[in-house]
Amino acid sequence: MARENRWVDPAPLEVARPRLPWWTLLPWKAKLLLAPLAAVWVVLWLVGRGVRLVWFYPLTSVLFVVGGVAYWVARIWVLGGLALVVVGGLVWWHRDPLGFQRRVRWLRTEARRACLYAANWRTVTRLAGLTGEAKGREYLPTLRRTRSEWWRDRVRVRMIPGQAPEQWELRASGLAHSFRARSCRVRQVKPGMIELDFGHADPLAASLPVPELAAADSTVDLRRVVIGQTETGKPWALRLLGGQYLGVGVQGAGKASVLWSLLWALAPAIRSGAVQVLGIDPKGGMELGQAPELFHGGPVYGNGAAAVELLESVAEEVRARAVRFRGIRRGWSADSGEPFLLLVLDELADVIAYQTDRKLKERAQLALQTITSQGRAPGVAVLALVQDPRKEIVPFRNLFTTRIALRLDEAAQVDMVLGDGVRARGANAHEIPEATPGVAWIKEDGKRDPVRARAFHITDTNIIELRHYVTGGSAVVLPFSLRPDGGAAA
Ligand SMILES: Nc1ncnc2c1ncn2[C@@H]1O[C@H](COP(=O)(O)OP(=O)(O)OP(=O)(O)O)[C@@H](O)[C@H]1O
Predict the structure, then answer these.
(1) Are residues 175 and 89 in the same domain?
(2) Which pTM value belongs to this model?
């Protein structure tokens, strides 16, 4: 019974009929007339493919043509020369792989394009769901220019219509795995065009020794204070004039190196009095107490009334300067005759969140909000460091124009510090290895893409050198065991 009811395919051998191109249906006379046009089109298409090939593989094309001509003229010598070049290249690569990769960038670019990206592009984009289909036609994102550096490949992509960079950001991890990279970041180049950054190595893996202190009579450009290096090898510069900085990182993330690198770069201006640094160190002086001479009037140790009063006095100065500048100048400049003020808060949470005295806590929050929101024009900047970025701890994170995420514990913390969507653009501060303190992701207001950089490594010896520099050699540095407070002050 069951057998009789079984469904039988009425046309088991019927397959999808192939769709013939429209021109095959034309009468033969029309085909004859259109034949020369079709021939011209085919030739133009071939020329276009050739030009494209030369554009993407210039070196290989030149070598191919020159090699072919030379081989035709003098066979044996060319073969010998070629063998020598190959063996020489292999020896160089074996002895100095990094130098080889740095110098022979063009070769690497073309080899990686041909063997990795062009070879797998279609399959990977299809499997990653980055292709599209409309009216029976498949749309593929186009692989454009590629550039290989020793630590990353930059791959430009023309997206298909209707696609957004965010769709690529969602697939970034899968793309990295498919193209055998450690990471993949998506950058927007122009409408419809993105650049994928496939990282293979960390250019910030080695710590950066601090440069020599600038000559005492040199001027410091407060719009460009260099405190380290970005992953592309450019200086990591802070725009102190008009900027408010929040640095967040777990214990040992290297927050102090951001602070000391900044003071190091400002040293000539601190020495001349053009910049006055005010400091609060709630950890009893463990950090700022290493160089108290750098701070105008000495740092305040602790988070009590003295710390809050200092904050309030800076807030008052912000208001007073605004009144003094009114109608005379739009913002602070060196010729105003007033020093630029930099307020350094080593552990912000201790001052504005962990206060047991509620009144002090409110006063501290109010003063700091005034400074960060109004300090730009009167020439007052803040560098605040904190371990915990939660809203309950720093309720006014958005008042800091630049946020620096050093190593963090969780992905959610990255969003809290850098803002929504920045992590999707590659800023994985929670993945910074413990072995690279001082590495950070930086997000500046008004700039779409975050930057990855590392601060200079400032040692205890450097800090002593800095103290002598700023005091003109009069700093008294006691050996650790002789310090009255067990190491904090001199
Ligand atoms: N930029 C850097 N390059 C290399 N090493 C660094 C750098 N910054 C810090 N370190 C090293 O990492 C360790 C911890 O650094 P640091 O004290 O600056 O961290 P932190 O975030 O301030 O920690 P904490 O919150 O406990 O004060 C130190 O041993 C220091 O020498």
Answers:
(1) no
(2) 0.79
